[in-house]
## 1
Amino acid sequence: SLKKYIPKRVLLKISGEALLGKGMYGVDPEIANAIAQDIANVVNSGIEVCLVIGGGNIFRGMTAASKGMDRVQGDYAGMLATVINAIVMNNVLKQYDVESHVMTAIAMPQVAETYIRDKAMHLMDKGHVVIFAAGTGNPYFTTDTAAALRAIEMECDLMLKGTQVDGVYDSDPKKNPDAKRYDVLTYTEALIKGLNVMDATALSLARDNRLPTVVFDVHEKGNFSRVLNNDGVFTKVV
Ligand code: UDP
């Protein structure tokens, strides 16, 4: 029989918007709980998990800059937004008895541990969840790039991008009823066609370091573990 390949260590990236739910701002507790439950199930199955959470539900530097704000200051506001989401998710995970930690790319010692690669590695080796917050710590980057970077640093087998859609399409499925979903896609193809997967920095970083990414719908209950078992609907980018 065909033996299924199950990864040993993965990074799950959740966009800020995915946490928004029906709310106008912040984090929807129902969604946070559902995602935490899924993460707990995967962790309990013996897969090592780390997380990067976006901040788009609270603040985006580029959006603010388009309305006249200084881009760099806006990006700092965006990075701080990711810390808010990380603290919330860390707390919800603890309610599911997951050992989890927040590490920030910008030092804020009263709030969370500062990111140190070896320390994070050690925690992951022990099976703990590490939530990487404040993106890369640099303006002009995104949390998708932070996710690719941390996944590579943590030697993850796979990055999973949890979104509101069930994969990558050749055009916007909300606007075009004939839009086709890719099962498999290459990073180079995504870059050339300008497909809505991740920004170019994240795509090229993942490509150059041979980190595959799975794009899936994080709101579908149980999907995180389903996708890791190669079931369900998703797009794999290689
Ligand atoms: N950001 C940044 N550097 C990083 C990561 C994030 O400056 O390394 C800022 C940027 O302004 C971004 C915001 O933080 O818009 C929130 O992150 P992102 O837009 O990636 O969140 P998501 O879309 O995943 O919710």
## 2
Amino acid sequence: MKAGRFPLARPRRNRFDDFTRRLVAETSLGINNLIWPIFFTEGTNTVTEVASMPGVHRVTLDRLAAHVEPAAKLGIPAVALFPVTPMEVRDAEGTEALNPDNLMCRAARLLKKEFPNVGLIGDVALDPYTSHGHDGVIRDGYVVNEESVTILTQQTINQAAAGVDIIAPSDMMDGRIGTMRMALDEAGLLNTRIMSYAAKYASAFYGPFRDALGSGGMLKGDKKTYQMDPANSDEALREVEMDIAEGADMVMVKPGMPYLDIIRRVRDTFAVPTYAYQVSGEYAMLMAAIRNGWLDHERAVMESLLAFRRAGANGILTYFAVEAAERIKQTYGV
Ligand code: PBG
């Protein structure tokens, strides 16, 4: 046998042309992998841009259907709802979270009627409703567990009754998933799904979101007694394991890009539907560089989203969902 020219194995052959690259691609990003977080407010006829999130808007309820329509038309499977609750109804106990006619419930009813095929994901936590910006209630300076879980469970039922399909507890209290699951089942809401923010870190990357919600300036202290320490990875597996045991149907890792290692470990260990949240600070960071002409908009955004898929995420909550879906549609015509 005649010796070939060294090297015989050439990885570059599979990168030679576009069709080969497509043929050997291990992962892909589709419209079905996208979830779009949206912000809405009271009032009428107003759309305001979130200063630290160029391209992300808060819309009044009368504009919500028009806001969601492009996402529905593109076939984005679900939107995540974030109400910007008026300051006057926020209090220390987050009472407004339990009002069946609160902004969140009205938005859910409206969207369910307008777009029955778009899944509604409801964030369960008290921060849009509390005067102190924490996700639970405070006793003696501490966000207490059991009392918070009781209120959050009532919030869960309130949202599910208004038409929220997937309850997404983002509060990080212990035992909340099991308590919420039992309450949903007792209320006959057997098919209301739970997407648990299972591994949610006490992160600096939520800053722009808190601006969008108006809870940033109000937040007293930090969330380190309930959200996870960014130093930890094994602990994320324990959190996920407990949430699955308590009845979570899907789990989430949050933030996204700095935590791709966690997504990979969760997916490899549990093989449950796993989602990643590319949070507000990640969006702000990318957009700041894009706006400065330092990164190519399309390539940077699409690469960041594909990386989540490669890390093992079934889907991504991303403020780029609509533009990503548009690009996917242009490229693949789907
Ligand atoms: C509420 C909640 C937060 C985010 C989603 N749900 C903020 C927080 O935990 O302080 C952050 C989302 C983002 O930054 O895009 N508990």
